[in-house]
Every structure is written in structure tokens, then in C-alpha cells.
Hints:
By secondary structure, this protein is α/β, with parallel strands linked by helices.
Amino acid sequence: QESAKEHGLRFIFSSSRSSSSSTAHPPVAVNPTRPRHSNPDGGRRPRLLLLLRFGGGGGRGGAPAGLRDPRRGAPGPVRGLLRGPPQPPRAAQRAQPGRLRRLDRLPAARAVVLSAAGPHFCAGIELGGPGNPLTAGGADTVAAAEGLRRAILEMQGALTAIERCRKPVIAAVHGACVGGGVGVDVVAACDIRCCSRDATFVLKEVDMAIVADLGALQRLPRIVGYGNAADLALTGRKITAMEAKEMGLVSRVFDSKKDLDAGVAKIAKEIAEKSAWAVMGTKAVLLRSRDVTVEQGLEHVATWNAGMMRSNDLKEAIRAFLEKRKPVFSKL
């Protein structure tokens, strides 16, 4: 049995293959039970890709509200589903960055949603689980310490891959989101963070006599400020969805899980209808601006736009505005 921390890194990836169509399409909910190379609509491609079923635990459930379930024969474009076979936790950790790089190259992928199956986004680490590096037996040696260091770096890389994905990543959190089980660390690596009203957030590592090591301490101060980050990390206290919104950890709170699923689907669809180059450029500039001076950030965006302002997407956006219609942007 794997630990919850390892389970939290075992994503289920489902993706859409590209075709020649450039028409904007609604989001597609993918289900891991569908055969690997299905093609229910003859080749039209969606403009959006969603990653579902992160962490959590519990049943798989149906497609969230606002997302089509291709198993039920709903109309609309579905090109086909691609999912890797089940893997042990350590193999899943190694595969995580490669999978996100594959999604990065997928023309049909315009946005990514991270959600959870079961009652919680991430319920925390399983302290007594076999294979848990925090409780593993054996001699206290340099070799064991180096092995643990490699394991931590591997898990850090799996979460950093979320941030490095060029496509916007949206976190949809419901139930418990516990640091010490990768929950808060994952959320902090996402670009847009939403939750349901029943969501709670906690950095639990300090209560376990360890230092949070998967990115929360590095990313949270930039999101909620040093004072709020220190408050959460040093006390290990639990905060509600509304307090998380007040401090800026999440930008939107929905009344229920159903409303959350519908809300993030709407956000993702809005992003998918924009110019893919403009969306990716905006994310890249935002991330770079986080770590440089204002002057350096301005120089970076000037260089970016010097090339991007000659794109066909800009011309199409102007034409569409003048013609009072929705723009049809170029493919990646």
C-alpha cells in the first residue's frame, strides 16, 4: 500500500489528439475507463485538455458538471483518449514531468485542470505506510540520507513540472488540502486556484517535526505574503476556504463541488478560446516577473512582444473586433 504522499503524485493523465480543425470547441471530460484509442466523433479536435482525478482517494465518479463525458455519447468533439497504464508510485513520480512535457507539445491542449476523486483533494501523508521514506527503518547512514535527498528532489521535480507547463494550470480543490501530502504544494504550483466552500487548507509538516520540502515554503510567500505564509507554516493551523480567499491563496470560492467543477470548466473554456500564443506568453512573463526586478521584467516582455506582435493572431483579433465576431485563432 502506497503512502498518501506518494499517492498524491500518481496522476491519471488523459489527453486529446490533434487534427486539422481550428474551430473553438467546448472542454472535454476524460474518463480513465474508456479504451485507450477511442475516436467517437470522427476526428474533430477540442481546443482544451483537462487533467482530472488527482490524489484524493475514493471512487472515480462521473464527469464533473460542465464537462462532457464521452462514454455517454454526448455531442461535441472528442478526438480520442490517451492514458498511460497504472504504475507504482515511484515510477509515477519519474513519469510525471515527462507527461506534462507531452501535454505541453499537444496542440489541442489549451488549459489544464487539476481536480480530485473522492471526498478530499489531498488528505495528507500516511505515516505508517510501507515504503514511506519518513518512517522507513534501517541504519542512520549517509547513504540512507542521500537516498532520501534524491527521493525529495524527485518529488520536487514532479511538482515543479506543473509550474513549468506552458499551458495554464487550474487547481480545483474540495475537501481537505493538506501539506505533508503534497496538497498545498500542488496548489501553490498552479496558476489559478479555486475551491469549494467546504475546502480546508493546512501545512501539517511542522506538526510532524519536519520542514515542508515540496515547494510550499518557496511559493506561498509570493502568493499570500511572508506573514501569512509564516503563520500557516509555523503554526500548522487549518484555514477555511473563505480565509484562503482573503489571503489570496485562492481567487474564487464556489458553494459546492458541483459548482466548483462547472466554474473551473468555464474558466478553462474562456482561456481555451484565447490566442494560445498570447496565453502562453502571459504565463511565461508572469512567472519570470516573479523572480526579477520590474526593469528586467519589462525588458523581457518587450522582447517577447517584439516577436509576437507580428503574429497572425493579432491580425485576426483586430479583424474579429471590427467585424463584431469571435476570433478564430491559429493552431499551435
